Amino acid sequence: MNQPRPRIPEATVARLAVYLRVLTGLADGGRSSVSSGELASAAGVNPAGLRKDLSHLGPCGVRGVGYEVATLRDRIARVLGVERSRACVLVGIGNLGTALADYAGFGSRGFRFVGLFDAAPARVGQRIGGQPVRPIEELDEVVAGTAATIGVIATPAEVAQSVCDRLAAAGVRSILNFAPLALSAPAGVDVRQVDLSVELQVLAFLGQQRGVAAPTVEVLA
Amino acid sequence: MNQPRPRIPEATVARLAVYLRVLTGLADGGRSSVSSGELASAAGVNPAGLRKDLSHLGPCGVRGVGYEVATLRDRIARVLGVERSRACVLVGIGNLGTALADYAGFGSRGFRFVGLFDAAPARVGQRIGGQPVRPIEELDEVVAGTAATIGVIATPAEVAQSVCDRLAAAGVRSILNFAPLALSAPAGVDVRQVDLSVELQVLAFLGQQRGVAAPTVEVLA
DNA sequence: AGCCGCTTGTGAACGCAGGAACAAAGTCGC
DNA sequence: GCGACTTTGTTCCTGCGTTCACAAGCGGCT
């Protein structure tokens, strides 16, 4: 009918998810209103930037007062699509996969795992967070039966591409990849990469660049 | 001499880490040279952007031929500081912490955990990846004894800030935070945030946005 | 030796994100 | 009822990142 979302920049969407988390915490704490300054401080961003992010949702605050916590929370939740729970499948139940399956943060944010898959027969049948690990062969069946649109890959890098192909073929439209490998997916399938080693290396580089006075003496080779 | 690293943009550093991983794989596979196009494809980036990233290291390719795999790998490794192993401490040995402690990708990239810490007495004494879990009280001692400069927080959000304070007080200069909370650290301490739920929510939003845009008929003005 | 094709490295333009300052608007106090 | 203060929403501007396009350089072939 209208155009409530002309285009929301991706960086803004990421921050909106952070604001939503903070607002949920404030609401649980009994707070009824917040100012942009306080909210920005809790989210770790600039107040002006926060207001600009919120301006993409249309006016949702009261000048001179601030934002009503519950109202703003619900509006962000609606824009992000958190109001309805989303079915996800998780492939690769190793250490990381187990941690993701057990992570309570997903369930409280509108994501539920409807299928845990692994190729190793030893892992199939184990129960993680009340759910059984299924053989990878049942992937298509579960995706079709649950209309899951999001897949999470936590497998070793060697099989990540084939898992990606299977997910895409099964009808999954969005893939979150933890394997340290650039995946190639067909058009229409979004892939988002999370590389934990890269995060550490960036951190180490920044620290090294800044820490010239490090305890280790740098010797030119 | 002049300035070998005037300033390398943070986004470039993150990609350099990816190139390094790809190059290591190519070297292990016996490849001796690569073109920017092939390397960019394997890393999932634009060829021109890759060349610009590499230009921050000075000329390191041969025109008409490409890049020598081993040479480029070593040069990136030196710039990122991977040549010497870096000591890290990990606080919070829950599901995620266990996965991180066991993750082989860190060790092969120059990061070694010299201390695993948890506040729960039940977890103290367990061995993860050949290392014992220590009580949080020993944090200062271990950081001082190992000169660890990087700390990883994988605790619940409620205690993440106090852990951050302890790490900073112990002398840790760089912190990678997995708790869904914006940390405030003293000046001189770098904090990098990884929020898994945010990644999923961004992915869900993009998928939802496209799902809405697809069935809607676009009308030209 | 000279030419040709291929690939790198760099320069410029475009678009986007971030930050600061300003105007609008609503509420509280008098 | 009116003024002033507080806080939002917006606008401008600066800087960065990304992309495209071209010139420079090197190897191979004739």
Automatic annotation (TrEMBL), chains A, B:
Domain annotation CoA-binding: ranges: 81-182
InterPro entries cross-referenced by the UniProt entry: CoA-bd, NAD(P)-bd_dom_sf, Rex_actinobacterial-type, Rex_DNA-bd_C_dom, Tscrpt_rep_Rex, WH-like_DNA-bd_sf, WH_DNA-bd_sf
Keywords from the UniProt entry: Cytoplasm, DNA-binding, NAD, Repressor, Transcription, Transcription regulation
Coiled-coil annotated residue ranges, if any: none
Binding site for NAD(+): 92-97
SMART domains given in the database record: CoA_binding
Pfam families recorded: CoA_binding (PF02629), Put_DNA-bind_N (PF06971)
Gene3D superfamilies registered for this protein in UniProt: NAD(P)-binding Rossmann-like Domain, Winged helix-like DNA-binding domain superfamily/Winged helix DNA-binding domain
Keyword Ribosomal protein: no
Subcellular location: Cytoplasm
Gene Ontology BP annotations: negative regulation of DNA-templated transcription; response to redox state
UniProt cross-references to HAMAP family, sorted A to Z: Rex
Family per similarity comment: Belongs to the transcriptional regulatory Rex family.
Quaternary context: Homodimer.
Protein name as it appears in the record: Redox-sensing transcriptional repressor Rex
Organism whose genome encodes this protein: Geodermatophilus ruber
Lineage: Bacteria, Bacillati, Actinomycetota, Actinomycetes, Geodermatophilales
Gene: rex
